């Protein structure tokens, strides 16, 4: 950690800062420049927070050298992490192909969609049983009944399943049915929920909040990792923008940023990022090109009857075409796509 002193710092103030940090167990390295004096702290930076040091008179700024997300950082783990979702690998050169409807629907429809996405090459089935809706009057999901339908459908087609948990009280029940637990954008900073999913042994799909910075996302991942669950996959799903031309602003560069900062896999969700079926295929490909470890796409065989997010659903035929293009791009980058049910 580096302490930058104010240009008008007095000698007494400087001595006080040195005494203070030395009393905290750090050795110091003083550097008096022409305009500014700085103090380098030598010791375990993780044992101290910059916040109280900034309150010492004469201190202009405190700059940590290490990122605050210790476990999620590349420093902690230089090699990319590979998350295993019931046999499907994500990260370290393995792409996730997550697809399915926004909400879990009745079994026949789930069968139709699962059969189509499996045929197209998807390796994980998605569907929400607990839906975080803006309106309390909108469809809220089928609850535990939906979890059962999703589980049965996944088992029938040999696809692991991912589904969202919106409430810490539902973590146990979701854990019983899901292969991977999703924490949605609206709950990215629900710290109680993050702690609870961190206590499970299931892989977690953590979506970026719609007004969260990359650092916020990594700090939320840190909540899960610090509970002992190392199986975290991040997801870029767009942030709030000023333009209504797309549902959100697809921050595709964040994928490359995260790759530099963290060892955790990160996938893209162009469905929620753009909200437009015409933009989903090019934006999915852009995500893979920029280094994403997978794509998460909403697919429905009859979008006009979808219980939620119908307007942004790809038809199975459109998904199959996109999946074919993703395979070509993946091959170009030397990435593999695990087939569900095969190690
Ligand atoms: C979803 O996956 O259906 C969903 C609600 O996504 P997000 O949390 O990214 O809005
Ligand atoms: Mn959705």
Describe this protein's structure.
The protein has 343 residues and is α/β, with parallel strands linked by helices. Helices cover 33% and strands 17% of the residues. The protein has helices spanning 11-23, 50-54, 107-120, 144-157, 171-177, 191-198, 214-225, 253-261, 270-274, 280-289, 316-332, and strands spanning 2-5, 27-32, 37-42, 59-63, 83-85, 88-90, 96-100, 124-126, 161-164, 180-183, 204-207, 232-236, 266-268, 294-298. An eight-stranded parallel beta sheet has the order 13-12-11-10-9-8-7-14. A four-stranded antiparallel beta sheet has the order 2-3-1-4. α3 (107-120) packs across α4 (144-157), α3 packs parallel to α11 and α10 (280-289) runs parallel beside α11 (316-332). The protein starts with a strand and ends in an 11-residue tail after the last helix. Phosphoenolpyruvate binds next to loops. Residues 102, 128, 132, 184-186, 207, 237, 269, 272 line the site of phosphoenolpyruvate.
